[in-house]
Amino acid sequence: MKQFIFLLLTIITTNIVSAQEEKQLFFGVNVGTKLANKNYAGRYNGAYPYTSIQGSELYGVIMNSTINYQHIYQALGDKNFALTADSYPTNVKYSPGILTGVTIGYQTGPNFQMSLDANFIKLKAKNAFTIEVYDPTNSTSEPVIRLGELYAEESRFDGRYNLDYVADGNGTVKFMMGISGLFTAWRMDKFMAIFEGYQMPMFSVHNPTNNIYNKTRGTGWGGGINIGLEYKVNDKIIAQILYQPYQTKVNYGFTITKRLLIQHDFTVRLLWK
Predict the structure, then answer these.
(1) Into how many domains does the chain fold?
(2) Dihedral sign (CA 249, 252, 255, 258)
(3) CATH no. for residue 57?
(4) Closest by alpha carbon to 191, among 70, 47, 37?
């Protein structure tokens, strides 16, 4: 990785010094897909504490709420139930998210460009939780288990500063590579437990206190690389197809022990130059 960055910076510096073509401003739009790191989706497993005193969010919303408990009790045919240590999903992950955004940049030479991306992403996470039903008619040694759903929606903003090198070539397709610095922000838009169609919000998403037990937004910083192809559509429009893996450190209000948290963007830029 260090050798790659050193090589890229050397190429960029050489290109700037030797550039003879006219410098120009460009702008464009971005579309693509984000594969978000699943370690951050652990925020939506229902086990996160919701107060400094009592248990998990899921426990608080279901077991500590008379209304919600009674509704599930009746849906089970007037049977009591409990949350156990195994009730929470262990492999929580995001669905691929849609990325849209805009780009503004400056081409300083025939091969070198710098740009700013402002990308907006919508992510969803769907997982199942379980409850153990106390059924007096159950004559087996196996517990009676029923499934509920945990559903979350999350918005993200990614601001990227890119330094990209586009290789020489006589054809319409050129190889490109670069590095990027990244600022990211996240916001929880929706988080709820669902049982038999009955929706139970986990907490107030826009709680202004935003303390450690109800954190619903945060920010972070990181960096990554850009690898892809540039395709000349016509004299004014350029298409760039990029794979952009990156590493960030983001505050989600809970501890993530894993240090390598790679995320992946697959982006198409349409640039007007």
Answers:
(1) 1
(2) negative
(3) 2.40.160.20
(4) 47
Question: How is residue 130 written in tokens?
Answer: 């379980």
AA identity, residue 179: I
Single-letter residue type at 76 = L
First to last CA, the chain: 31
- What mean pLDDT value characterizes the chain? 87
Whole-structure pTM value: 0.84
One-letter amino acid of 64: N
CB 238 within 8 A of CB 103: no
| Domain coverage including residue 91 | 2-272
The predicted-structure confidence for 28-78, as pLDDT tens digits, reads as follows 999 999 999 999 999 899 988 776 556 788 998 999 889 999 999 999 999
CB atoms within 10 A of CB 85: 6
- Give the Cα-Cα-Cα angle 245, 216, 99 (nearest 5 degrees): 35
C-alpha 206/C-alpha 53 separation (Å) is 22
The C-alpha atoms of residue 58 and residue 88 are separated, in whole angstroms, by 9
Give the C-alpha separation, 152 to 208, whole Å.
19
Task: Label residue 52 exposed, middle or buried (CB < 10 Å: 0-12, 13-18, 19+).
Answer: exposed
Q: Residue 223, Cβ neighbours under 10 Å: how many?
A: 14
Note whether 215 and 206 are within 8 A (CB).
Answer: no
100-139 b/e with 16+ CB inside 10 Å = b? ebebebebbbebbbebebebebebbbebebbbbbeeeeee
Which residue carries 């450690």 as its tokens? 212
CA distance 49 to 13: 50
Q: Locate 193 and state its tokens.
A: 């437990």
